[in-house]
């Protein structure tokens, strides 16, 4: 695997570290570095790219951040499907902005992953070869215009519930990327609610279309939070490292508690006969998603897995000439005395994502 250019080896002198643990000028041994890492985590400070970190912490972050980035990039597809069929210019403009935001989120996140010493070209290869994944809900189809509203209201709503705690994640670049991403996700969520509001205040046929879309998207949104806690392979360690702050089940419950009153406002009913407020628990009781279905979709057997991945590979292949042109342009501007032109480190990836954006549209 290629590794991103690193100017200095990892040390403990990043902003997450309040000074080195071993005084001046001496190279701390691994036990000391580990103790310092544990202290930064325990003090709820940030680990920064040049700080020492255990290999498993680095691997976990690469896995999660890459999956997150891939979800943003492949996640452009279900809604891009409706860009040319939006019911008004205003709705088209809003949807276009949302899809472009997702491309931007993918870029932040690939950049955050690169601070861990990997190259985004390798992450994209891993996605295209099925070695890394994106979130399950993206493998469901958007059958009507109302699906774009339900998708945004429910899955962006779920993404916000999941990602707000990630703003306090222990890894600095990931946490900081999440702050802006969450602000933009709030707009996505709000516009989904607004789109459904228009439909539920329209004709009976429009109301029915909105209800059917919510029927389709409720469980894919609940499944976004992952397997139940007892079956979650990574949660315990990720929570100990403060990458994750809550279990998958805690976040799923929080999402349901937030969502049900919003559904009531919209006049829409989640497709769960057992959904009701439980006074004793102070939460809604609800039927969990079908976790066997989640496993099947994660393994590649959802309704649109093949279509989504084939489209992503095609967008990547068709963008090859843009990446080559951008690299050639950057090389032309490289000067012998001043190192690489700034564009040299970012242009190929930017070109790739710009192409993906266009192709998804
Ligand atoms: C919560 C979890 C997804 C999983 O917790 P962990 O502790 O990491 O794992 P855990 O042990 O619980 O699971 C075991 C295995 O199962 C995998 N898996 C689990 N669930 C899923 C799933 N649902 N889908 C697929 N795979 C899933 C998991 O990776 C692991 O597999 P591995 O060992 O890697 O092979 C976490 O990684 C996370 O927060 N990620 C960042 C959130 C993120 O990506 N947000 C982007 C939202 S998109 C957006 O906003 C843009 C948009 C919006 C609207 C429209 C269009 C676009």
TrEMBL record:
InterPro entries xref list: Aromatic_CoA_ox/epox, Ferritin-like, Ferritin-like_SF, PaaA, PaaA_PaaC
Recorded superkingdom: Bacteria
Region (Disordered): 1-30, 326-361
Gene3D superfamilies per the UniProt record, alphabetical: 1.20.1260.10
Residue ranges with Low complexity bias: 6-28, 342-353
Matching Pfam families: PaaA_PaaC (PF05138)
SUPFAM superfamilies linked to this entry: Ferritin-like (SSF47240)
Biased composition (Basic residues): 330-340
NCBIfam families found in the cross-reference section: PA_CoA_Oxy1 (TIGR02156)
PANTHER family recorded: 1,2-PHENYLACETYL-COA EPOXIDASE, SUBUNIT A, PHENYLACETIC ACID DEGRADATION PROTEIN PAA
Name of the protein in question: 1,2-phenylacetyl-CoA epoxidase subunit PaaA
